[in-house]
């Protein structure tokens, strides 16, 4: 009830005086509490587009980056479920992940679907590829940590690339 009231009050404050940053930040925070991340992004973008100095305001930029991160996090597939690691999720050991991958890979291997129709064959190939990506992320300690924090595959790739460049520069 508290966040619902906050959302209403922030909306009223924006309506009566749309030139203050704080109501937009509160509105975005309330929307995030309701897991309405896309709407939080929109509220913060409205703030930036409406208030001239909001583009330079670190609290707005940080809140926008966080809201965008949560949108991407919400759109990610569940790699643990994809592999069939049931119940334990992020607590699964590497051995459990590899066993689940082996079982799923045997089921979805393209050779097992070679005699099927074109659509089914392509679906099996796509699923098999996703299984490989899931295994790669969940069995690499650095990538798995990022995944469990909520990063998507693109963000993980960027961070791995940055890490590799930094380590390459020290050698």
Automatic annotation (TrEMBL):
This is J domain-containing protein. Residues 78-151 form the J domain. Keywords: Repeat, TPR repeat. PANTHER family: DNAJ HOMOLOG SUBFAMILY C MEMBER 7, DNAJ PROTEIN P58IPK HOMOLOG.
């Amino acid at each position: 009830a508290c966040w619902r009231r906050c959302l209403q009050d922030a909306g009223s404050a924006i309506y009566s005086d749309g030139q203050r940053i704080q109501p937009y930040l509160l509105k975005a925070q309330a929307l995030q509490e309701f897991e309405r991340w896309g709407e939080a992004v929109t509220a913060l973008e409205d703030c930036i587009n409406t208030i001239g100095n909001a583009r330079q305001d670190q609290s707005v930029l940080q809140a926008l980056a966080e809201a965008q991160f949560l949108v991407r996090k919400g759109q990610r597939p569940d790699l643990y479920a994809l592999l069939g690691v049931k119940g334990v999720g992020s607590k699964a050991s590497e051995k459990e992940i590899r066993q689940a991958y082996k079982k799923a890979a045997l089921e979805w291997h393209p050779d097992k679907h070679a005699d099927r129709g074109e659509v089914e064959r392509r679906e099996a190939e796509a699923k098999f590829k996703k299984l490989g990506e899931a295994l790669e992320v969940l069995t690499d300690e650095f990538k798995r940590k990022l995944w469990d924090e909520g990063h998507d595959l693109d963000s993980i790739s960027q961070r791995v690339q940055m890490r590799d460049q930094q380590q390459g520069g020290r050698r």
